[in-house]
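Record type: monomer structure entry
Structure origin: computed from sequence
Chain ID: A
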Amino acid sequence: MAQAYAEAVSSLRPPAADPDRAEPWLAVVQRVLDVTPGMCGYLTAERDTTGRVTDLIWAAATPEASTPDGLRGSQLVGRRASRQLPAAGRGGRWEVYQSVLDTGCPAAVGPFRHGDAAYTVRAHRLGQGLLLNWTRHDPGGPSAARVAGTERPATLGWGEWDLITGDIFWSEHLYRIYERDPRLGPLSRDESDALAVPEDAPLIRAALEAFDRAAQVDVTTRVRIGGRVKFLRTVADAVRDAAGRPQRIYGIVQDVTDRENDARRLAEVERRLADEHELAGRLQRIILPIPEGPIEFPGLKVALRYLPAGRESLVGGDWYQATGLRDGSVLLAVGDVAGHGTPAATTMAQLRHALRALAVTTSDPGLLLTQLNKLTCELERENPELSATAVVARFDPHRQEIVWAQAGHPPPLLSRAGRTAPLERPPGPMLGVVDDATYATSRLPFRIGDVLLLYTDGLIENRRRGLDDGLARVTRTVDEAVRASPQQPLAQLLARLRRANPDDDTCVLAARPVTGETRDLRHHLLRTPLG
């Protein structure tokens, strides 16, 4: 049996006109056409007493095959081509099909007009029938890509091994697939085994075992031909005796090298993206740890939440900073580096740590952004098109005041007395755009009952809505959270906010003044996810 199948992989011919033997052969053809793109069909010939072709009958079809009467795919089987495509009998096309059937030499017919389009038909003899491939051309003239598609059937070869007589037959295209001179005849078992890739031996053994159990085999294996590897898909079946022993093995061999190579290249790209995703994720967790619960500062409580983009995207460059300074004030910031992946996460780390280091020399938000801009401009020279936004705020617990500045960033939201509104932004361009940019500051009182929300644009952006709609939605959510829990609104706020843009990361920082008599909100944050 091993010898039978090994040679069947490369030596198959469809049975002759016996209907009992033709039926399984057509099933094999249909299995191949089921996964063949475009309009392609296998048609058997009706002949008169002189042997002249009088009609073609659909015996198998691709899912995309269709005719002007609205039939598609399997609905065509058993239909007469002369009734569905009456023009096929004119212009000498029957004569071309007759020649292909009689000589075995493939031919093309067209381009010809049919309805509102032009077509070319490529005809190949396959067993006792014709494998036809239709290509529709663009109205402006033949499309090279589509004309090239008419050669698709050349990737199919067929043959037969008669186990009783020992005869082996290969079709013309099977010789082409194996790049073998037809004068040498079909491959012997030893020659076939020598071409097989050793790593595929378990797959071949499993296919042989299935074939021995009277199952039809559909397997893709590799062979080395002409110094390169080809992927060959073989669909094989057999005519068997009453005891189930094969008497004639036949099938189709399809060269699927391009398809398999494309799949492997795609898998490699996905693997590399996955590796980058994991690396960036680890980097982000190291440089941007998110506390499990709220952070207590003198006179201030801060809650944080970070939402990465959807699973199919890489981590981004959103970041936050919440740090107590030596003079007793608190530095708050959020920022966003454009892009995703390791480059964005790396730049995010540089800006975040630079801000913390610069805060040792000054606590003025405008001066801090000026220095961050200079750093970003330097980084942009190494990484063109780098840009970032940020908002930096300093809370003074003694004055109960916030001083803040922004660099092209969405405005913070302030909730006061049951009403939430965006703050009017002081001037300031994005980071990394203008070398000598300066950043103005604004001041506002920040007292018990107020809530300040800093966020990145993923919270308000959405492909289906505008920024104004997103900002209005978040504003309503803040109002609802404060009304629901006026004494301890941070947990309510983070529980109610929803990520508006699954394609972008979101970083949220919520802060409120406290007197030192507030509850620990950690269990609220852990129990109510944001998004």
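Annotation 1: The two ends are 60 Å apart (CA to CA).
Annotation 2: The mean pLDDT is 78.
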